[in-house]
Amino acid sequence: MNKKWIGIAALTITLGGIALFRLSEVDFFLKEPSFEPEEISSAENNETFLYGINVTGLNIIEGTVSKNQTLASILSPFNVPYQIIDQIAKKSKEVFDVRGIATNKKFTIITPADSAQAQFFIYEPNSSEYVVFNLDSLDIYKAEKPAEFKTREAGGVINTSLYVDMSNLGITPDLIDMFADLYGWSVDFQRLQKGDKFKVVYEEKLIDGQTVGVTDIKLAYFEHMGMPYHAIPFEQNGEMNFFDQEGNSLKKAFLRDPLKYSRISSRYNLRRFHPVQKRYKAHLGTDYAAPRGTEIRSVGDGTVVEAGYSGGNGNYVKIKHNGTYTTQYLHMSKIGSGIKKGTRVRQGQVIGYVGSTGLATGPHLCFRFWKNGKQEDWLKEKIPPSEPILAANRMAFESKKMEALQLLAQIPAGTDEKENLASNSSPDFKNQATAGSKP
Ligand SMILES: [Zn+2]
Fold this sequence. Notes:
The chain is an alpha+beta fold. Helices cover about 15% and strands about 35% of the residues. Strands 16, 19, 20, 21, 22, 23, 24, 25, 26 and 27 form a ten-stranded antiparallel β-sheet that branches. The chain has a seven-stranded antiparallel β-sheet with strand order 2-1-6-7-8-9-10. Strands 11-12-13-14-15 form a five-stranded antiparallel β-sheet, sandwiched between helices. Zinc ion binds near residues 266, 283, 285, 287 and 366.
């Protein structure tokens, strides 16, 4: 049997998460049934489970896929007949294509206590899922690892930009995007003041104790030039939305920006010198400079009415949102997959990628906006707000708001809270600043 180990002697495996061993030494440890892998939780009757499998008394061998390893080269040292490997490779196609087994991914092999023939092979294609191959019954299924959710909070002061100052606190780009989108219509993040403040309560998803992403914002606060902007969640008409301290909805029919982290490089202008055509010409769009490949998002729900190429527009997509509004996105390097005439799109859905096709000097998005058939200045348009808190919900909202303010007040944002307390008399704000100076 030792011969079988030689071919993959370079593969290191973790035995019960306790130590690393060379596979060539594994047969010795397989005879040692006394270890207890970390992932196993003991039930009252002393039964242990791993990946939902009752592994009481079984041997568990953990490893990572080494370079060029295949299902066959992983399993054959564990006495799995080639016919079985072949059968499960074929059978697993709809669940998980075993040709996708990749270097450095984690796997686990489970063998009976008295045999070195693998009974289960479990592969983790990513940090949140696993695929179980039952080598006896030839059952193959994919499952999600149990996730844990944790509420976290952060607060800080703007010195450079929302992106830089939030990143410095360890806030992920995902969360910065969510925050910027939440306030898209109330705060112009391109024109922040030094000393503006932010606070955010959010939920993180963890798997195996590792953060895999931010699921949502629970509560937020932004202070621009001493003015407070709250984002308080409240469910109304069966839909969860964010409202300001007066009970006005922060949500609008459209996103403020079709790109994330972008800079407006040219505004709607009826008389602009065209950089390519070298003549004065109306610019009826808003240009956003961004690196090639940046995702372009539909600003609202709608239906694609045009998706294609023209000499001036390059690759472009036009979306009709309703009887009043239509938007168009030009110079794409590539149109998003599945985006064609007639496709229904949702607000925020990626419809293409920034490029410089058509009449463009460099990569940017030219964004055009029609209201009742006429091209208008997107940056000047007053987009109708969503419904505010209804009279019937007022009491419930006020109580939710008080809770929110108390929670926010416990999050420190900056060092100069006292100064702001003195210069602002808004009761909401006072509450913020007073308690905000607590550690
Ligand atoms: Zn333009």
